[in-house]
Amino acid sequence: MPEPTPTPLPASCPDTPLVWRGGLSTPRKLRRIGSLLGAPAFMWLGLFFILPGLLLLAIAFATRSPTGGIEWTFTLDNFRRLVGYGSFGWSPANGQIILRSVTIAAATTVICMILAYPLAFFIACRPASSRMLWLIVLTVPFWTNLIVRTYAWLIMLGPESPITRLAAMVGLAEPGAALYPSTTATMLGMITAFLPFMVMPIYSSVEKINWNLLEAAQDLYCSRWGTFRHAILPQTYSALFVGVILTFIPAMGTFLISDILGGARFMLIGNLIQTQFTFGSGNPPYAAALAFVLILLTLIIIALFSRLGGKREELV
Amino acid sequence: MSINVIAVHKTYGTTLALSNVDLIVKPGEFITLLGPSGCGKTTLLRIIAGLERPDSGYIHLDGKDITHDKANQRPINTVFQSYALFPHLNIRDNIAFGLRSRRVPEAEIGPRVDQAVSLVRLDGMTDRRTHQLSGGQQQRVALARALINEPKVLLLDEPMSALDANLRVALQIELRALHRRLGGTFILVTHDQDEALTVSDRVIVMNKGRIIQQGTPSEVYQRPTSRFVASFLGHANFIDAKRGSSGMAETAYGPLRPQEPLSEENATLCIRPEEVLYPIPQTCTNRVSGTVREAIYRGDHQEIWLDPQGLRFTTSGCTPLKIGDHIEVGLPTDNLRVLYA
Question: Does the distance separating the beta carbons of B98 and A221 come in below 8 Å?
Fold first, then answer.
């Protein structure tokens, strides 16, 4: 029987030499160097993200101790309670909180998108000298702590502030009353906090827009809307995607803004987790279960969204 | 369809782009706007396309004033220099774009795309993305995307500038054949004089926002009316001349007899390198002698610079010249043009 002729090595063969930065190297070597350089980051993530995440999952199946700590007795009670089954039968409260969190986060994201899109174009179309200034103005709020910024809203929406008086004048609020705590106040705080996260990625994509495509679209009989739809929007899809992720995820998890501006009755999933994690009065295993659900929910929504935008994503 | 450009004027800030340009393009003509960068040729094209507004003047299409029509209202399509293909669409959808914008029924779009695709010979590639195509293929897509709309006027903004030399020549010939086949009015912008001479019925030479000269390729090449045109289209020797007696011109080479007697005191004589005669025939009266300063081998011919005045000429004579050879060449009267500008 004739011996089978050896097949030629494919280009991706691990030891095919390839030139790398002037030195002769192989893909295998490159991979080793790559893992070595990436090791600190992997270790960091493993130690401070994956490990705590697993711990969180473990706690979610533990029991609350009488003192409000953790007792390592396996139970599914936390998840039962999460979907609404408490000591007094089923209640929709948790469902409402989760639904409200998703709605508020989605609304914040959408409003941020609507505000950020034109703003990004405005900044990108400034002359280079003043463009930097606009970007600084946009990022100045980050120089201040989020708590301080959120408290600033209390003053702005307080009973004596011009905004409140104006609102009272046009009949949007009762005279002499503050505009907080309210959903509107929370939304204002959240949009203010997250807007730059939406503007920045969109701005960087607008800066790179190929304006020739706009002329091509016009040359090919597109209306103004058609030009936007076919020549501008597709060029910013990936930036919108990044912006949505950067806005939606923190918006889902926020508790500080809703705590300060939303009041005690306006509870988001973040607030619920925070109260339940308070040792002594809270229920840490239940909080862990909630936190786990929050992570899962966010991942699912982002996955759904990226599937929606995924087809377009590859094109940009 | 005919295009009438009437007294079109355009400035960008303080920069003059077009200075009262008049131009008539006859139906079915293939014209080239030729000139160095910044001469206003692209601005003129963009004004015809409707992508730019003139400060004053009019654009008429078949006698109808379209000066204030927007780009999307004009039956004119453009092949852009950068092609400007939509990266989020595949080749088929790029080509179908104009028809879809105008809400042509899908049943009609399919066959028309197929037809356009085979016209530019891109069969079998319609499902690809634009970035999967080579420069030449992208250029064909841009061409098909414009032609499928059956534009009354097709504008081409330096469509070959991004291609390598061989491909460029092939596409120029193809473009010419396409124009013959489809008819229609084509206006091409280029700074490449070879391209202008190759493809067009008529060449419009522009400089500094004005039309300097227009005519058939052979007219503008053979009978340039200015030093600019003579030097922009091909190579030329320029010889400063003063009016002499009995139709002669006094030059640094001595007295020469030009095509026609000088009508002004000072002029420039112009002769192209390939028109200089070497070896010199007995009948030639304008004789110039000199020493070979530089001799370059070009395969099918030799290129020579002659001292002391640096006269440049080409020879296909069988005996190659060497640096230092002392020779005599002829400047035939028929080719010794007189320029005043």
Answer: yes
User: Quick check: A55 pLDDT over 60?
Assistant: yes
CA distance B8 to chain A (A): 21
**Cβ proximity of A208 and A261 under 8 Å:** no
Q: Which residue has the tokens 């010419």?
A: B176
Q: Among A222, A226, A316, select the one facing B88 at the smallest CB separation.
A: A316
Q: What pLDDT score does B142 carry? A: 94
Locate the chain A residue with the closest alpha carbon to B93: A230
Q: Which two tokens stand for residue A59?
A: 């706690």
pLDDT of residue A248 exceeding 90: yes
Shortest distance between the Cα of A247 and any Cα of chain B, in A, equals 25
| Interface with chain A: mutation pick from B48, B91, B97, B104, highest number of A CBs within 10 Å | B97
Alpha helices in chain A (DSSP H): 27-45, 51-60, 77-82, 93-124, 128-139, 146-156, 162-169, 183-207, 212-219, 224-227, 233-253, 256-262, 269-277, 284-313
Regarding the domain delimited by B3-227, which CATH topology (the fold level of the hierarchy) does it fall under?
Answer: Rossmann fold (3.40.50)
- Please give the Cα distance from B217 to A270 (Å, whole number): 77
pTM of the model: 0.79
Q: How far apart are CA B304 and CA B234, in angstroms?
A: 16
Residues of chain B with CATH 3.40.50.300: 3-227
Q: How far apart are CA A48 and CA A71, in angstroms?
A: 23
| Count of other CB atoms within 10 angstroms of residue B192 | 15
Q: Work out the pLDDT band at A10, boundaries 50, 70, 90.
A: very low
What is the arithmetic mean of pLDDT over B16-39?
94
| Closest Cα in chain B to A236 | B88
Alpha-carbon distances, residue B287 vs A159, B242, B260, B270, B328 (angstroms)? 103, 18, 17, 15, 7
Tokens, residue A36 = 């070595």
Give me the CATH topology for the region A72-86+115-139+182-315: MetI-like fold (1.10.3720)
Tell me which chain B residues have a C-beta less than 8 angstroms from the C-beta of A218: 50-51, 70-72
Q: What is the mean pLDDT of residues B48-65?
A: 94
